[in-house]
Every structure is written in C-alpha cells, then in structure tokens.
Specification:
Layout (H helix, E strand, L loop, with lengths): L8 E2 L4 E3 L1 E4 L11 E2 L6 E5 L23 H15 L6 E2 L1 H17 L2 E2 L14 H8 L7 E9 L6 H13 L5 H4 L5 E11 L2 E11 L10 E3 L11 E2 L1 E2 L8 E2 L3 E4 L6 E10 L4 E3 L1 E4 L12 E5 L9 E10 L2 E10 L6
Parallel strand pairs: 3-5, 3-13, 6-9
Antiparallel strand pairs: 1-2, 2-8, 4-7, 5-8, 8-10, 9-10, 11-15, 12-14, 15-19, 16-17, 16-20, 18-19, 20-21
Length: 337
C-alpha cells in the first residue's frame, strides 16, 4: 500500500484518520499492509497465526497503564465495548505493550501507518506483529494480530478524547471492527506523538495475542443490544468495502470462535420512522478482498446512517452450518468515521 494519506474525518475537532485493512484479526497468519493520509492519519490491521492460551507470559492481573493516559482510556473503552456484547475483557500484556510502542515509534519516524516494517528503515524491530512481539519477549507459538494508526487534529484533545476518536474510528471500519472484537486473550497498546503545524500528530498501535473459546451461544455481534455512541458512517477504508461509494453506515461485526465458520444470508437496518436499508453482507467466502477469516463476518449499510439515532437490526445466517438470527437495537453518536 502506498504512502498517500487518505483523509478519514472524525468529529468537529477536525481529526482525521485512515483505515487500511490487511487482515481480519486473528486466525490466519500475520499479513502485511500499510497506508497513510494527507497530514492527517491512518490505520492498518493484520491477522495473526492460530494458537491458543489462557495465561501468557507478560500478562498483568490489573492494567498498569498510567492513569489518564491515552493507553488507559483506550483499554477501558475497548473492554467496555467487548464485555457489553458478551466478549471477554482483554488482559494487558507488557511484552505486547513494548512491541507496539516500538512500532508506533517506527510509524512516526517514517510517517506511515502500517502493519509491517521494512528492514533497514529507521526504528525497524520486526516485519509483522508476531515477529515484533517475539522480539519484545512475547512467547512463540501464540497468535498475534493487530491494528495500527496515525491521526492528526487541528485542536488539542484530552487523552480520553483521543482514545474515543481512535476506537470510534476503528469501529467504523468494515474490515476493522471485527479485529477489535476478535476472541483474543491479551492486548498491548502504545502511542507516541509529535507536533505538526502546531498541533499533535499521534501514532498508535494495538496488538492482540492468543485466542480462546470465548463465544458461547454464538455468534456474538458488535454492536449489540443497547450499544450507544457508535460511528454513524465510515469512509476511506483500504481496501474499500464492496458495493460502497464514498461512505457507508455503522458496520455490524458477527464474531465466533477461531474454529467456527460464519456466513450471512440477510440483513436489514431501520430507524424509528421505518426508513430501512438492506445491508451488504460480507464473509470469508464472498469477500473479494480476502481479508475476513471464516469465524468473522460483517453486515453494513451501503449509505451513511444518521447521527444520534436509534436503529433496529435484523441479521440471519449460518454458524457452523446451523441457521441463526440476531435482532437488536443500537444508537449512533455524533462522530462520523
């Protein structure tokens, strides 16, 4: 992927972010990819190899991120979203932290949001999430994937504000939302910043380690019943989600365990006034970009939704060959991805 920055505007503060997907987040071999934007921001995601663990070297029972930091706020927001929808809370892993801080520094030094690193360039520690984690001390033979980003805003936000923009931006990505909700065990979160045109430009990376049978009565969805403050639109994801033009609405991730297979057969979304859209359905066997693993699928409106609005969702499909259906409501917020 190129070093052309694609603006992915979020919120009134003028924050911009890019999404460049390079895998679905676990279960399929660490892949590569990168993207950046016009002095704004960018993000990238990658799958990890299979493997499972319930307690991994470097895990800490209570998160040690500094109080009030971007990392602490991101950790809190991510786990709140996961646990509300029946997915397990992630555990901080200090080796993964070390690996993603190093990668965020690599991104900043080379002005590129990327999953991969190139040997011989400034800050190189390893080609992908798995090798960088192992260099940092993470055990071998354990699944590792992740997402990486850079973003710029023409106003200085609070650290919680940066975390909100970061997580919400990833939630707006058809190929990214499932990475955040994958059945992982551990997480590492790292960010660094520099000044561009008198305002902060941040570079961040998340790595997800391990896997476990985390979804009972699956599949799970994100968003789910009662989710709020979701991004009402997404744009500028790489690769571009199929059958979209410019923007799309809130994507719905459908998640199983890494040994599961999900297909989708129907999906609709409607507001309280009865305005309805038939959603696009994306899963491993019909994904033209070959990014989604078998245990992950996404349903998404091909047009943007409305901010601060409640929506009703109905999805049907198969889960390991058995029919399933899900129906729930969620509410969008004021941030567009």
């Amino acid at each position: 992927m190129s070093n052309t920055r694609i603006k992915f505007a979020l919120a009134a503060a003028g924050l911009s972010i890019i999404l460049a997907a390079c895998g679905g987040g676990g279960g399929g071999g660490d892949s590569s990819g990168s993207s950046t934007s016009n002095n704004s921001s960018g993000s990238s995601s990658s799958t990890g190899s299979t493997g499972s663990s319930s307690s991994i070297s470097g895990d800490v029972a209570t998160a040690q991120y500094a109080s009030g930091s971007i990392e602490s706020a991101t950790f809190t927001r991510l786990n709140a979203a996961r646990t509300q929808c029946g997915l397990p809370a992630l555990v901080e892993n200090t080796y993964l932290d070390k690996s993603v801080v190093a990668h965020a520094n690599y991104e900043m030094a080379n002005s590129i949001a990327s999953d991969t690193e190139t040997a011989g360039t400034t800050g190189y520690t390893g080609i992908n999430y798995t090798t960088r984690a192992q260099v940092a001390g993470f055990p071998t033979g354990v699944s590792v994937g992740g997402v990486s980003t850079g973003f710029y805003t023409t106003a200085t936000l609070t650290n919680d504000g940066y975390a909100e923009q970061y997580i919400t931006g990833l939630e707006s990505g058809v190929y990214h939302v499932g990475v955040l909700m994958a059945p992982a065990v551990d997480v590492g979160i790292g960010s660094v910043s520099e000044t561009f045109n008198n305002f902060p430009e941040l570079w961040a990376s998340l790595a997800f380690g391990g896997s476990k049978t985390a979804v009972s009565n699956g599949p799970a969805t994100f968003p789910c019943q009662g989710s709020t403050d979701l991004p009402y639109s997404g744009t500028a994801e790489t690769p571009t989600p199929p059958n979209t033009s410019g923007t799309w609405g809130t994507p719905i991730a459908v998640i199983g365990n890494m040994s599961d297979t999900i297909t989708l057969t129907s999906g609709t979304i409607s507001d309280s006034s009865g305005n309805s859209q038939t959603m696009q359905l994306l899963y491993s066997t019909n994904d033209p970009n070959k990014e989604l693993p078998a245990y992950m699928a996404t349903a998404y409106p091909a047009a943007a939704l409305k901010p601060n609005t409640q929506y009703s969702v109905s999805i049907t499909g198969t889960y390991n060959g058995v029919s399933f259906s899900r129906a729930f409501t969620f509410t969008t917020g004021s941030i567009a991805g």
